[in-house]
Amino acid sequence: MRHGSNTLHNNVYPKFDISVGPTHWSTIAIYDANTIESIELIFLASSSSISVCLSNATTGKPFISTLELRQFNGSVYLTAFENQFYLSVSARINFGADSVDPVRYPDDPYDRIWESDSVKANYLVDVAAGTKKVSTDMPINVNYDLMPPEKVMQTAVVGMNGSLSYRLNLDGFPGFGWAYAYFAEIEDQDPTGPRKFILVLPEYPDISNAEVNIAENAHGKYRLYEAGYNNLSLPFVLKFGFKKTSDSSRGPLLNAMEINKYLEKNDGSLDGDVISGVILLYSTADWAQEGGDPCLPVPWSWVQCNSDARPQIIKLSLSSKNLSGTVPSGLTKLTGLVELWLDGNSLTGPIPDFTGCTALEIIHLENNQLTGELPPSLLNLPNLRELYVQNNMLSGTIPSGINRKVTLNYSGNINLHEGARRGRHMGIIIGLSVGAAVLLITTIVSYLLMQKGKKRHPEQDSLPVQRVISTLNDAPGEAAHCFTSLEIEDATKKFEMKIGSGGFGVVYYGKMKDGREIAVKVLTSNSYQGKREFSNEVN
């Protein structure tokens, strides 16, 4: 991975983190706009894709110029820890290089970057006096486990005074690492004696004095010998060297070295696999393109996570995201979920069982096309305090007792009602039917009385209009209520719907502001029914 220049005003340069999936890899700091920063990571691919995230910029904006992937064969960098750790390349140096250019593909078939010791890679300093560069054009047999490129092995440094020494910085350390040195006898002149030397690590006496005999270890000239440690604790500033043994007639030789740090893999959030399944349902949506772990290194824009070592999703905000189909069943497996916002979509089907989400406090499903009943399992959510399901197509009875613990909004679901209201609604329907029957009988009786009255009082004066109101669901014998003319006109929409008539007037349908359905009986001026008789009926 390479980072070029991306300066800001006032010569402020970017500094940000880079992660592989949920695992923090490195912190990138660009201090020189003319210098390319390259970092490498060796990992065992567990799937066909890998997520790389740039985040947490402390200055400037995160950026990347190149992202390259190279495949190794199975034996290169094989360790016993590859399922638990990545290898972050800290130093890979070509000693005795004949130029300042790094060696990589096509000289290295795996395109590893071998930095020249001439550019003081890793701040390589404290070079021992008498250090000499040597090289050869002879082919080198490098067909061993790590297979460094032949071009790298054709150059080396030799300690003419009997020793080699260096000091360098190891990015990412202190920590546990993997360290190897590469040797090949390449001096073309006839040897005047054996080349034997020992490793010198001043700060690590326990592993110093490891002896190298190139001719013996490599089984001849122009052949690779790899020597190193698979698990070694190293500091940030490493001092190392080689010193010839007392029975060696030639000084130590070094062709190349490589040091990698073990980077422990982060398993990511507990909900990573679950939410990935949800993402697959909407793989083409813009909001589903963020990739990687939903919580690490930073949460997705529509996700909020807790701060546990293995975080969980606690809030999901997918309001007005054009979601369709049923509510994804995977959401019911988010055991740490506290808030769920799916309002303003086109979700259909029933509300799933969220019993496993015991931490749920807030559910917003309003303004969808959900059907079915409110699941009784909602009563099993001990922390639920807010449930919004208005403007769906839900039906049935609201689970008894849910109103006592939850702020519930279910308006706009015409077939969804509370258990107590269902009885009342049935009473209204029955009352309407009974009321209609009574009205029919009253109309007949009134008509007969009117005919009789006409004979007895042919010159009865006309009376002003009088109006009486009764609720259709009032119990028989209940006292009459008094209402203003304005209330009556509003309820009947200015006497819009006629539902019957009698000898004393017309009956209109109405509905009060509190939802009660009513019948309004209007005494007309040409009705014979007297004011006193009409009032008696009301009372």
Average predicted confidence as pLDDT = 83
- Annotation, overall tally of beta strands: 33
What would you give as the CATH superfamily of the largest domain? Galactose-binding lectin
What structural class is derived from the secondary structure elements? alpha/beta
Unreliable stretches (pLDDT < 50, length at least 5) are 421-480, 525-532
Helical segment count: 6
Would you state the CATH class of the largest domain? Mainly Beta
Q: What is the gyration radius calculated from CA atoms?
A: 44 Å
Strand content: 25-35%
CATH topology of the largest domain: Jelly Rolls
- Overall structural domain count: 3
Biggest β-sheet description: 6 strands, mixed
- Principal-axes shape call: rod-shaped
Q: Examine the secondary-structure arrangement and name the CATH architecture of the largest domain.
A: Sandwich
Our measurement of the CA-to-CA distance between the termini, rounded to an integer number of angstroms, reads 92 Å
Q: Level of helix content?
A: 10-25%
Give a concise summary.
One of its GO terms (molecular function) is protein kinase activity. The chain is α/β, with parallel strands linked by helices.
Your description of this structure?
Its main location: membrane. It comes from Salix purpurea. GO terms for molecular function: ATP binding; protein kinase activity. The chain is an alpha/beta fold and 539 residues long. The protein folds into three domains: 70-264, Sandwich (Jelly Rolls); 272-413, Alpha-Beta Horseshoe (Leucine-rich repeat, LRR (right-handed beta-alpha superhelix)), CATH 3.80.10.10; 439-538, Phosphorylase Kinase, domain 1 (2-Layer Sandwich). It is 13% helix and 31% strand. It is built from six helices and 33 strands. The chain has helices spanning 150-153, 214-217, 272-281, 419-456, 485-492, 531-538, and strands at 2-3, 15-20, 23-29, 37-38, 41-42, 52-59, 85-94, 115-116, 131-135, 155-159, 163-169, 175-183, 196-200, 211-213, 225-234, 237-244, 253-254, 256-264, 303-305, 313-317, 324-326, 339-341, 346-349, 362-364, 369-372, 386-388, 393-398, 407-409, 415-418, 466-471, 497-502, 505-511, 517-523. Strands 5, 7, 8, 12, 15 and 18 form a six-stranded mixed beta sheet that branches. The chain has a six-stranded mixed beta sheet with strand order 19-20-22-24-26-28, with no helix packed on it. The chain has a five-stranded parallel beta sheet with strand order 21-23-25-27-29. A hairpin with a 2-residue loop joins strand 31 (497-502) and strand 32 (505-511). It is rod-shaped. Residues 421-480 and 525-532 have low confidence and may be disordered.
